[in-house]
Design goal:
The chain has ten helices and 14 strands. The protein has 305 residues and is α+β, with helices and mostly antiparallel strands. Strands 9, 10, 11, 12, 13 and 14 form a six-stranded antiparallel beta sheet that branches. A four-stranded antiparallel beta sheet has the order 1-8-3-6. A four-stranded antiparallel beta sheet has the order 2-7-4-5, with no helix packed on it. A hairpin with a 2-residue loop joins strand 4 (88-95) and strand 5 (98-106). It is globular, with a radius of gyration of 20 Å. Mean pLDDT is 91; it is low at 1-13. It binds ligand 1OR (2 copies). The site of one ligand 1OR has 19 residues, from strand 11, strand 12, helix 8 and helix 10. InterPro entries: cAMP-dep_PK_reg_su-like (IPR050503), cAMP_dep_PK_reg_su (IPR012198), cNMP-bd_CS (IPR018488), cNMP-bd_dom (IPR000595), cNMP-bd_dom_sf (IPR018490), RmlC-like_jellyroll (IPR014710).
Length: 305
């Protein structure tokens, strides 16, 4: 029932908020700089054009929070969307009447989009663990600019997302929810997309071009000069960057663009929330990585350790 309501609430063409006046919160140059830096990697803003993005920045306002403060309470109506400038925030979800910490934001990312996108109550409670700084964006501006763009995103990516083998087992509505929150990133020839050893916060699907996966060699001579060996390539419809999210470990390999590359990017919270049903497929493939690892380097390193 809820999903039917969502589909209705989503229709952007009769968005009543369209005629509302433009929201502007004046900012100092210093604030604007910090805001721009905090918003640089926000996936939901990636689909905006320059004009829309600058309207979003104008409308955002600074929010300072204290330890233990609830920025959002599960079950309430959604007022704002938040971008994190700094601070650590727990994601708490009520399960059988008990609050369970299901994840954490660590000094980056954004939250509070779901209630605004689908006109639903807040799906989780967000609690500041320390002093923090956020940038809020009011509901009306979020709907007018970001949600409106989502209709275009759905049209653009519907066919492609249908063709991604990993996502075949999901319902259409679930795949569309992935489209709603994904971002698109472009990379130039040779650009590093993932660095081995880094902490991970997102997952990638190749939309166009080719991605080369490289690993630091485990042989002694190579290790000394830090040489990397190519282990595989990913092309349109294939995914990478799942391993670190599934294992909670640093990136196991590096990824580089070959020629111009476009990837769909999903943050770790959306990955956890929406790709649960695909995890078994990923885990089966990870078992194959382990076999290949032994074949390539002759060691029996367990990637899941
Ligand atoms: P919102 O407007 O519903 C709470 O307000 C926000 O918490 C929500 O938007 C998301 O931005 C964020 N399930 C639901 N909401 C989540 C989750 C989440 N994680 C972050 N948010 N799950 C946790 C995944 C790590 C699934 C829990 C079962
Ligand atoms: P990640 O989050 O660890 C690097 O970031 C990504 O490279 C990784 O997720 C996988 O998506 C991708 N071993 C480890 N990672 C691999 C491998 C792999 N293949 C692709 N990735 N293999 C075994 C190593 C010899 C498979 C080789 C075919």
């Amino acid at each position: 029932m809820r999903s039917m309501l969502c589909a209705e609430a989503f229709n952007p063409d009769d968005d009543e908020e369209d005629s509302e006046p433009r929201v502007v919160h004046p900012k100092t140059d210093e604030q604007r700089c910090r805001l721009q830096e905090a918003c640089r990697d926000i996936l939901l803003f990636k689909a905006l054009d320059q004009e829309q993005f600058s309207e979003v920045l104008d409308a955002m306002f600074e929010v300072l929070v204290q330890p233990q403060e609830h920025v959002i309470d599960q079950g309430e109506d959604g007022d704002n969307f938040y971008v994190i400038e700094r601070g650590v925030y727990d994601i708490v979800v009520q399960k059988d009447g008990v609050g369970c910490c299901v994840g954490q934001y660590d000094n980056k990312g954004s939250f509070g989009e779901l209630a605004l996108m689908y006109n639903t109550p807040r799906a989780a409670t967000i609690i500041a663990k320390e002093d923090g700084a956020l940038w809020g964006l009011d509901r009306a501006t979020f709907r007018r600019l970001v949600v409106k763009n989502n209709a275009k995103k759905r049209r653009m990516y519907e066919t492609f997302i249908e063709s991604v083998p990993l996502l075949k087992s999901l319902e259409l509505s679930e795949r569309m929810k992935i489209v709603d929150v994904l971002g698109v990133k472009s990379f130039q020839d040779g650009e590093r997309i993932i660095m081995q050893g880094d902490m991970a916060d997102c997952f990638y699907v190749v939309e166009s071009g080719e991605v080369k996966i490289m690993m630091k060699s485990k042989t002694k001579a190579d290790r000394q000069d830090n040489a990397e060996v190519e282990i595989t390539r990913c092309s349109r419809g294939q995914y990478f960057g799942e391993l670190a999210l599934v294992t909670n470990k640093p990136r196991a390999a590096s990824a580089y663009a070959i020629g111009d590359v476009k990837c769909l990017v999903i943050d770790v919270q959306a990955f956890e929330r929406l790709l649960g049903p695909c995890k078994e497929i990923m885990k089966r493939n990870i078992a194959h990585y382990e076999e290949q690892l032994v074949a390539l380097f002759g060691s029996s390193v367990d990637l899941r350790d």
